[in-house]
Design goal:
The complex is a heterotrimer of chains A (370), B (564) and C (307).
Chain A: H1 6-9, H2 24-27, H3 29-50, H4 55-67, H5 70-95, H6 103-120, H7 127-156, H8 160-180, H9 219-237, H10 239-249, H11 251-256, H12 261-284, H13 299-310, H14 314-338, H15 343-360
Helix pairs in contact in A: 3-15, 4-5, 4-14, 5-9, 5-10, 5-12, 5-13, 5-14, 6-7, 6-8, 6-12, 6-13, 7-8, 7-12, 9-10, 9-14, 10-12, 13-14, 14-15
Chain B: E1 8-17, E2 20-30, E3 35-39, H1 46-54, E4 61-66, E5 69-71, H2 76-81, E6 84-87, H3 99-104, H4 111-122, H5 137-150, E7 155-159, H6 167-182, E8 186-191, H7 194-200, E9 203-208, E10 211-217, H8 223-231, H9 240-245, H10 255-260, H11 270-282, H12 285-296, E11 302-310, E12 316-325, E13 330-334, H13 341-349, E14 356-361, E15 364-365, H14 371-377, E16 379-382, H15 386-390, H16 397-402, E17 410-411, E18 415-416, H17 418-431, H18 448-460, E19 467-471, H19 479-494, E20 498-502, H20 506-512, E21 515-520, E22 523-528, H21 535-543
Parallel strand pairs in B: 3-8, 3-9, 6-7, 7-8, 13-20, 13-21, 16-19, 19-20
Antiparallel strand pairs in B: 1-2, 1-4, 4-5, 9-10, 11-12, 11-14, 14-15, 17-18, 21-22
Helix pairs in contact in B: 18-19
Chain C: H1 2-31, H2 39-57, H3 60-84, H4 89-112, H5 137-141, H6 146-161, H7 167-177, H8 179-184, H9 189-215, H10 227-237, H11 242-261, H12 271-286
Classes of the chains: A mainly alpha (370), B alpha/beta (564), C mainly alpha (307).
């Protein structure tokens, strides 16, 4: 008898061999998370002191800004929903092995389409018609915007990382063009003080509030929750989820096994774009109901970061989105109430991401960037 | 430098990857002025040993001495600085650079002089301006060897260097090894082919399961003694096909060696007898019948007509190739790798479209069909690169078996019925004798042999199955798995399926096939009937591009093209 | 009319100088296989440190040194993440930019207060006698500041010193194309990649100083405003080769300067549209719709030695 092959007795995950030097305890997600929060928090404390504010005052302002009022909670939830939508889309594309860096551009495309549709709707449009129209327009435009990258990848083999990155800037630029030109979306210029932004959406195209008049939380929160749950189920429990995973791990083998690889890849990227486009439409359909330059304010990039931090888990997408959503709103109050620059929160957040990235992203992408 | 000290001395070398022991307490002494062979089946730890010597992998325990002084490389640069040159199993050439630029990467002083010296001393010619990505594998291998020799190494380590070489190329390479040893340096030749060992080696060390199972001067170690050390059971227990895959068929890897008279050893007796026996067992009575049926039908299981394929760079990979595989027939394609076999498989698998010609399965045109349509029509494909094309290592075994047929496993209309998948997979595992930790085990946790059995089981489960195309079906498998794969292929043929086997192991094709054609520069030459007594020699000649009608002695004066 | 063209060209070159400086480093880094999206952050930190140093010492030269040091420090962080820890280059790059934006904004609140950074010691143009009066090209090329001339020199040295013909350039290409092979040839893969990122940081820091000390003599929040990303885009549009990258930088500069020259030329051009143009061009270039394009195979793939 030949001896049994060594691997049989010891089935070891193939990727484990990659990191042996750093103690596994240090690499455990919980340890990493706690350490990152502690380190970033310490830096935050230093920043607060540097601005000449007492830690207690700053903390109160931060908490006040996050949970102090139903207004604070509501707007934090809206931000979290936008991030969660983008991150959900990112996760789907990532499952198929694609990295969608283009959330920002897709968000812009979605917002652009939503504003175009919304502002052409008659003033008396019923909400049951107006809201879905605006949201669907955002979805379609975002999907199409991502579709450009998908098509270039399928046809010419261009890396989606680079194309989606470039399309971000084009998307942001197009929003600027649209809100600067009266022939496009700019509101009628009546005086030199007319802002370069679109006319406001009619009543029937605005997202309904869900938390009473006090809270700005809108239906997008519900939509984001539903999207995340449905996506989670599809990825985990359906044939489509398994096919996406297979394509993500090995396009060559998947093709051999008869999976429509190009369709799955392009489709997942388009889905990511549609989710970001939906988020963009929501941003336009939330007060002040206009499309303005820089309305995306980096949500697309933050959403990408949320998606990467969540590492494929939709529960984590929800958790990280909430954290980021609340932190951002708390930071605004930090500046208003405690005189600490809001950029402190930006710094703390980015350090948090860098710490986690340093510890955990020892290349999960299978070298397919080129 | 102490001349009495051995060139390389390894003691107590141990290396684990995760929970897998790749090397355990390995001792090895390479005397200077010798060619030392390291033998073992795939997975025995040979490559890990090379990586340790080359500085790519740090050992967990144990020490190395180089010409008497301690040697502990921490990176490949250390090995190079110590005078060790490696020729890796997978090429170490940057494909986008030219040959000359790849040489310049070594940052050696007076490169032109060194190139000239290697050319003169070893007769190794190179076109320095050729881009590596455009070179055939044989030339790349030659480039790799020249690259190693440019450094004038004290120790040359070659890891499975003959895998991509034809018989002539192998000969030239082994001759080069001898010449290096005779100049006082040392060569470590890592291989799993006994024929090469017998022709070029002075001493051998055999690895099995990461441990040294034996070794010594080759004068005292005839193949009959090496085989049990390699595989852990006596040589006599192997049938000729299995023996062929490890190059045990004595001069098996050098078909023209006999004709040219240059072979160092030529074990006469047992080999032809063994083959005759194998051919007998390979053709059970049942086989003739489907073949007869085929004659009655006009269509073939698989039919290629004037198929031409171009590579990305515009060169021709397949040139008006025509091929028929009848029902129940096993057709082999031999040849040095890189002569169009990979493109042929890609063409059959549907990942490459021909510029001209037609592919028919059972009379049905599949020239431009998608892989899915091919599977439905009954064309099974076992790709050469198992881990990248054959399966998805990160998914479960059950997922790998049924990925193309997930629609059958539905729950509540939309959800995937994993339990039903696992049940179905379980019966496949049992039926094919696949050793895995259940259907939920990750594909990557299986041994190479069991992975291959899963791939084969999946393709054989196609219904209908008109034709099965398998590339290098037993590469990297241990002896037991080779036997299982061969018998599955024979069974499929016996059931009326046409089978096409592409393999670089000529001995394997000789025992398995009814007909063998030879791929040479994008053409298919032959066919040759493996039952003919001079089949091996004729195929060897065809691999060098000789015409089918001119077999035998006329090739004596042939310059071994692949390496010159 | 010719005055307008002259203005267009010299404006274009002026805008292209920081771009050229940063892309000459980024080109090298990407050829070695590391994508630094953080060029933007490196430039921003450079500009901030340059302004701070010049303001604190009253000497623009000290500002340049500070910018250089800040760029190097920031690049060391990026290199630690993407080369040593093998973290995802895209996420760390983008996040590092957010960090830089946050840190410099915070810093300018704390250090400068209101208006202090509106006027910092800087460099004045030094016309090259004779040459600067050549029509069109004269004012464009020969009326730079000392830092501007240094930028030309640095870009030229990097382009020539690391061309494929030199052994250094060859090594960089091999490392970016196939790190494992390069390692087996004895090339120090990680050291070269680390150094390439540091170099990108140094030149990007200089580019930031050029913005703050040569152009406006001031620092304002987000003064780079995407020029760093544009530098990365120029490398992509230049298809990872030196000359096309140079052309891309110049073209991007002229496209920007067209915004200001357009009214004088009687053209009605949307300014945002011109801002967007470089990205569209890069998109066309990288898609192979304009010429053939091929990124280094190892771009964004970290190197880990192993069997």
């Amino acid at each position: 008898m030949s001896p049994p092959p060594l691997t049989l007795s010891a089935p070891a995950p193939a990727l484990r061999t990659a990191h042996t030097r750093i103690a596994p305890v240090l690499r455990h997600p919980v340890t990493v998370g706690v350490l990152a929060v502690v380190l970033a928090g310490a830096v935050g404390l230093g920043l607060v002191k540097g601005a000449g504010t007492g830690p207690a005052v700053a903390w109160d302002a931060l908490v006040e800004g996050m949970f102090g009022s139903s207004y604070a909670v509501g707007s934090s939830l809206n931000s979290a929903a936008v991030l969660a939508l983008i991150a959900t889309g990112f996760t789907v594309a990532h499952r198929a092995g694609l990295v969608n860096v283009g959330g920002e551009g897709q968000l812009c495309a979605g917002g652009l389409a939503a504003a175009a549709v919304g502002t052409t709707l008659p003033a008396g449009v019923p909400a049951a018609l107006g809201v879905p129209l605006v949201l669907v327009a955002g979805c379609v435009a975002g999907g199409a915007w991502a579709g450009i990258a998908g098509r270039l990848r399928a046809r010419r083999g261009t890396s989606e990382v680079i194309t989606t990155l470039l399309l971000n800037f084009v998307g942001v630029g197009l929003v600027s063009v649209a809100v600067h030109e009266e022939a496009l979306l700019r509101q009628p210029v009546t005086s030199s003080e007319t802002l370069p932004q679109s006319a406001p959406l009619p009543e029937g195209a605005r997202l309904p509030l869900i938390g009473g008049v006090e809270s700005p939380a809108t239906a997008i929160v519900v939509i984001a929750v539903v999207a995340a749950v449905v996506t989670g189920v599809v990825l985990r429990h359906t044939a489509v989820g398994l096919r996406l995973r297979s394509v993500g791990h090995s396009p060559a083998a998947s093709a051999r096994l008869g999976l429509p690889v190009v369709r799955l890849e392009t489709g997942s990227l388009a889905f990511a774009g549609a989710a970001a486009g939906l988020a963009g439409a929501a941003l336009v359909a939330i007060a002040p109901y206009v499309l303005a330059e820089h309305f995306s304010s980096g949500y697309g990039f933050s959403g990408l970061v949320v998606g990467l931090l969540a590492r494929g888990s939709l529960t984590a997408v929800a958790a990280v989105s909430l954290l980021f959503g609340f932190l951002t709103n708390g930071g605004i109050n930090l500046q208003l109430a405690a005189g600490v620059p809001a950029s402190s929160v930006q710094i703390v957040q980015s350090l948090l991401v860098l710490f986690v990235a340093a510890a955990m992203f020892t290349t999960t992408r299978n070298g397919r960037a080129s | 430098m102490n001349t009495a000290a051995p060139a390389l001395e390894i003691s107590g070398l141990t290396k684990s990857f995760g929970t897998t022991r790749a090397l355990e307490e390995v001792d090895l002494v390479v005397e200077s002025g010798t060619v030392h062979c390291v033998l073992g089946e795939n997975g025995a730890g040979k490559s890990t040993l090379c990586h340790v010597v080359g500085g790519s992998v740090a050992p967990d325990a144990g020490g190395l001495r180089l010409y008497g002084s301690p040697y502990a490389p921490r990176r490949p640069a250390d090995a190079l600085a110590a005078g060790i040159a490696m020729v890796h199993q997978h090429f170490s050439l940057v494909p986008t650079l030219t040959v000359g630029e790849n040489m310049r990467l070594l940052r050696l002083r007076d490169l032109p002089r060194r190139v000239a010296r290697v050319r003169e001393e070893y007769g190794l010619e190179l076109d320095l301006d050729a881009r590596v990505s455009e070179l055939p594998v044989g030339v790349r291998q030659r480039t790799e060897i020249v690259k190693a020799l440019l450094r004038e190494p004290r120790l040359l380590v070659l890891d499975e260097p003959t895998g991509v070489l034809g018989p002539a190329g192998t000969d030239a390479l082994l001759a080069t090894c001898r010449r290096i040893a005779e100049s006082g340096h040392a060569v470590v030749l890592v291989t799993h082919k006994l024929g090469e060992v017998a022709r070029a080696g002075d001493a051998a060390t055999v690895l099995r399961g990461g441990r040294v199972s034996g070794g010594g001067p080759l004068a005292e170690l005839p193949p009959e003694r090496l085989v049990p050390l390699m595989i852990g059971r006596p040589a006599g227990s192997l049938d000729a096909g299995l023996a062929g895959t490890i190059g045990l068929a004595a001069d098996g890897d050098s078909p023209e060696a006999g004709a040219s008279g240059s072979g160092k050893t030529r074990a006469g007796g047992p080999e032809p007898a063994g083959r005759a026996l194998a051919v007998g067992t390979a053709e059970p009575g049942g086989r003739a019948e489907p073949g007869g049926k085929a004659a009655a039908r006009v269509t073939q299981a698989l039919r290629l007509r004037d198929v031409s394929v171009r590579r990305a760079d515009g060169t021709s990979a397949l040139d008006e190739v025509s091929l028929d595989v009848g029902y129940g027939e096993i057709v082999g394609i031999a040849g040095v790798e890189g002569n169009g076999q990979s493109e042929l498989m890609a063409l059959l698998g549907g990942s490459l479209a021909p510029v001209a010609g037609r592919v028919e399965l059972d009379g049905r045109d599949l020239t431009r069909a998608a892989p899915r349509e091919r599977s439905r029509a009954g064309l099974g494909v076992v790709p050469e690169d198992r881990l990248h094309e054959g399966c998805v290592p990160q998914l479960r075994v059950a997922d790998n078996l049924f990925l193309g047929r997930l629609d059958r496993f539905r729950r509540h209309g939309v959800l995937l019925d994993r339990r039903a998948m696992d049940r179905a997979a379980d019966s496949v595992l049992t039926g094919h004798g696949i050793r895995a930790d259940g259907p939920g085990a990750l594909m990557s946790s299986l041994s190479g042999g069991n992975q291959q059995k899963v791939v084969l089981a999946r393709e054989l489960a196609l219904d209908p199955l008109i034709c099965l195309a398998a590339a290098q079906p037993t590469r990297g498998l241990d002896i037991g798995a080779v036997g299982a794969v061969h018998s599955r292929i024979r069974d499929a043929a016996a059931a009326g399926t046409g089978v096409l086997v592409v393999s670089s192991e000529l001995s394997e094709l000789l025992v398995l096939c009814d007909r063998i054609t030879v791929a040479y520069r994008g053409k298919l030459l032959g066919p040759v009937d493996p039952a003919e007594p001079d089949a091996r020699e004729r195929i060897g000649a065809l691999m060098l591009g000789a015409r089918a009608s001119r077999p035998g002695p006329e090739n004596t004066g042939h310059t071994p093209e692949a390496l010159r | 009319m010719s005055a307008v063209v002259e203005e267009l060209v010299s404006g274009g070159v002026r805008l292209a100088v920081p771009l050229l400086l940063a892309s000459s480093g980024e080109l090298l880094s990407e050829r070695a296989g590391v994508l630094n999206l953080s060029v933007e952050g490196m430039m921003l930190t450079g500009a901030f440190a340059g302004a701070t140093g010049a303001l604190a010492s009253g000497n623009a030269g000290v500002g340049v040194l500070a910018a250089l040091a800040a760029g190097l420090l920031f690049a060391a962080l990026q290199a630690l993440l993407s080369v040593v820890l093998r973290a995802d280059q895209i996420v760390t790059g983008i996040t590092a930019n957010v960090l830089a934006l946050g840190a410099t904004t915070y810093g300018s609140r704390v250090f400068f207060g209101d208006g202090a950074a509106d006027s910092v010691p800087g460099f004045d143009p030094i016309p090259v006698p004779g040459l600067h009066s050549v029509p069109v090209l004269g004012p464009a090329l020969f009326e730079q500041t000392a830092l501007g001339y240094a930028a030309f020199a640095v870009a030229a040295v990097l382009a020539l010193g690391f061309s494929r013909r030199t052994s250094w350039g060859l090594a960089v290409d091999a490392i970016g194309e196939d790190a494992t092979t390069a390692d087996r040839c004895g090339l120090p893969v990680r050291a070269v990649r680390f150094a390439a990122v540091l170099l990108t940081g140094a030149v990007s820091g200089l580019a930031g100083a050029q913005l703050a000390l040569s152009e406006v003599h001031a620092f304002s929040d987000n003064i780079t405003g995407g020029i760093g990303y544009l530098a990365v885009v120029a490398v992509i549009a230049g298809r990872w080769r030196a000359w096309p990258t140079l052309v891309a930088c110049l073209f991007f500069g002229v496209a920007q300067s067209l915004q200001f020259a357009a009214p004088a030329l009687g053209l009605h051009l949307s300014a945002p549209l011109l801002t967007t143009l470089p990205y569209v061009i890069a998109l066309l270039a990288v898609s192979g719709l304009v010429g053939r394009s091929r990124a280094p195979s190892g771009l964004t793939v970290p190197f880990l030695r192993g069997a």
